Amino acid sequence: MKALKVSDQTHVEITKIVGLLTAESGIVKTYEDAVKALLHQSVIMPPEILQEIEEFIEKNKQFGYSTKEEFLRDAVRWLIDQLSRTHITTLLEPDLKEDGANAMANSSSASSGGGE
After folding, report:
1. pLDDT tier at 18 (50, 70, 90 boundaries)?
2. How crowded is residue 32: how many other Cβ atoms within 10 Å of its Cβ?
3. Structural domain that includes position 58
4. Number of domains comprising the chain
5. Using one digit for the tens of pLDDT, what is the confidence trace for 80-94?
6. Model pTM score
């Protein structure tokens, strides 16, 4: 086991992460768990995008976001949902077209057959 020296502010931030991990799992977590989570669950993004997100949050408080993390979680969930819907629609399109053609054919034969 190795010791790490961190600033007081970094210690406070890691302590917050320990608290979040403990709250999420219901099991008491350690600083090691927090560091592992940071290493394995973090995504590195360009500073310009992070700045843009922070500015958006600041200018659009009506949406209720107070952190980049909250915003990014919702943005990713929304994108996954949208892409899933698009993918499902694309997969179903041939069937929908075929069903529509069959419905039109059945409608035509029913109306022509009904008049005889």
Report:
1. very high
2. 10
3. 44-116
4. 2
5. 998 888 877 666 666
6. 0.56
Q: How many residues does the chain have?
A: 116
What phi, psi does 86 have (nearest 5°)?
Answer: -65, -45
Same domain, yes or no: 49 and 22: no
Do 92 and 51 reside in the same domain of the chain?
A: yes
d(CA 12, CA 7): 9
For residues 107 and 55, membership in a common domain is answered with yes
SS in 3 state form for the chain? CCCCCCCHHHHHHHHHHHHHHHHHHCCCCCHHHHHHHHHHHCCCCCHHHHHHHHHHHHHCHHHCCCCHHHHHHHHHHHHHHHHHHHHHHHHHHHHHHHHHHHHHHHHHHHHHHHCC
Dump pLDDT digits (tens) for 35-73.
999 999 888 999 999 999 999 999 999 999 999 999 999
